[in-house]
UniProtKB/TrEMBL annotation:
This is Sulfotransferase. Signal peptide: none annotated. Pfam families: Sulfotransfer_1. It comes from Staurois parvus. Belongs to the sulfotransferase 1 family.
Length: 189
């Protein structure tokens, strides 16, 4: 199979998985779409207890780069810029790690452990949920922040349009959860 065919196949598999996740989420209540881990809410169709437990066993490396952001703060933009910078610095394509650290199946961590350095890893985790090994190895962490007011408005609309996230009937209901999450983030930073 050629590289182009392999890329096309992977894209088709990815899109099929996204469609399956969206279909599953469409049958869930807003409360079922939320997953609570150590007091922080995450999307239940993207995160699981098994993934968080497997994540705790991930061995961070000193040359890893962990991008930490709240949703809607420029995560994908930052990932792209960092990949381009590392490509130039190392004259090779850095390893792209699957989506967010906390999203997906627990098996992805075996794949991640086999990837060459430098690895660019991204996450929406708060400090208290980032695996301790990232702190022990003194991994570089890039914290991306955005004006909280802009972030809240953007995330409110994103959540109401995204099939895997709970819909909010009002700004007030959304803001209560957003505020609690933001307070947890700032307390542990």
């Amino acid at each position: 199979m050629s590289a182009a065919e392999e890329k096309k196949t992977k894209r088709e598999e990815f899109l099929a998985e996204i469609k399956k996740v969206a279909e599953k989420a469409s049958k869930m209540t807003p409360e079922e779409l939320k997953f609570n881990y150590k007091g922080i809410l995450y999307p239940s169709v993207l995160c699981s207890e098994a993934t968080f437990q497997a994540m705790e066993k991930l061995e961070a490396r000193q040359d890893d780069v962990l991008i930490v952001t709240y949703p809607k703060c420029g995560t994908n933009w930052t990932i792209q810029i960092l990949h381009e910078m590392l490509f130039e610095m190392h004259n090779k394509e850095p390893t792209l790690v699957q989506a967010m650290l906390e999203f997906g199946n627990p098996e992805k961590f075996e794949y991640m452990n086999q990837q060459p350095s430098p690895r660019v890893i991204s996450s929406h985790l708060t400090c208290k949920n980032i695996p301790k090994t990232f702190f022990e190895k003194k991994t570089k962490m890039l914290l991306i922040l955005r004006n909280p007011k802009d972030t809240a408005v953007s995330y409110y609309h994103f959540s109401n349009k995204n099939p895997v996230l709970p819909k909010y009937e009002s700004w007030d209901l959304f803001f209560k959860e957003y505020y609690n999450w933001k307070c947890n983030l700032w307390i542990v930073l």
